[in-house]
Amino acid sequence: xxxxxxxxxxxxxxxxxxxxxxxxxxxxxxxxxxxxxxxxxxxxxxxxxxxxxxxxxxxxxxxxxxxxxxxxxxxxxxxxxxxxxxxxxxxxxxxxxxxxxxxxxxxxxxxxxxxxxxxxxxxxxxxxxxxxxxxxxxxxxxxxxxxxxxxxxxxxxxxxxxxx
Length: 164
What we know:
Layout: H1 5-12, E1 22-29, H2 33-41, H3 46-49, E2 55-57, E3 70-75, E4 80-89, E5 93-100, E6 109-118, E7 121-129, H4 139-144, H5 147-162
Helix pairs in contact: 2-5
């Protein structure tokens, strides 16, 4: 359900002025978009490049192929996260809404966008959007997810993709 400007104003009123609720980082990676996308769209690969040190493991065989799919991930805290894919374009874009298993997503989104620059170079943009997050218990962690953390994931992803 979409929220109106007044609802957003009320929700955001407790935020410090200038606290961004959409954070992005990007970098060019010396690898093709298809190679990079495989590392992102296969949940079993995600703990290898996670710059937040939050992902522990995911079972093999969950490679994402379309909107509407969900994949399970174990966090380093031992919790199971069910990630609902809400955007998907093979080799170009993927986004998901995480949630505790069998629960409604609380409103934060992780997005990856890939733009081929050449056959062997790709600009990758990683975005964390917590505009619709309304679970007060998750706000502090959301505030701590800065562009530097996203950049750490990009750097680790680049290291993996460039050495394949």
